Amino acid sequence: MPLPRGLARFNRVVTNRVASVGAGRLPWFGILVHRGRKSGRTYRTPLNVFPIKGGYVIALTYGPDTDWVRNVLAEGGCELETRGRTVRLVRPRLVHDETRGALPRPVSAFLGLLSVNDLLYLAEE
Fold it and tell me: pTM of the predicted model, to two decimals?
């Protein structure tokens, strides 16, 4: 089961503002830049991101129904600010994977304890 929605709201208001300061430069972190599917507004969401061959994978700790995931799917891509550079990502693909095999082992093991099994794969343009 993904993390509770109440925690997501707290993170959006408090934690994300603090995390945004260094998230674009640290390993396994990034800032996802996406456009609202209804408002057209640009959003910046700090996340844990993991490089894979040809792109990135993101563990969906709050599940696949969060606004940012729905925005990225509707738009067909987004930008990612990570390690001091900006990357255009396309072809988002939701995958339910109980092994979380694309993630680093310590991260996969921790997310397994939380029953986080949904991943978003994005290809680098």
Answer: 0.82
Distance CA 108, CA 15 (A): 22
Query: Hunting for tokens 């396309």 — which residue is that?
Result: 90
User: Which residues on adjacent β-strands are paired with residue 30?
Assistant: 47
Helix, coil or strand: residue 78: strand
Q: Which CATH architecture has domain 5-124?
A: Roll (2.30)
pLDDT one-digit tens code per residue, 38-54 = 999 999 999 999 999 99
CB 78 within 8 A of CB 33: yes
Give domain limits for the chain.
Answer: 5-124
Judged by DSSP in three states, 125 sits in coil
CA distance 40 to 83: 27
Identify the residue whose tokens are 């095999």. 101
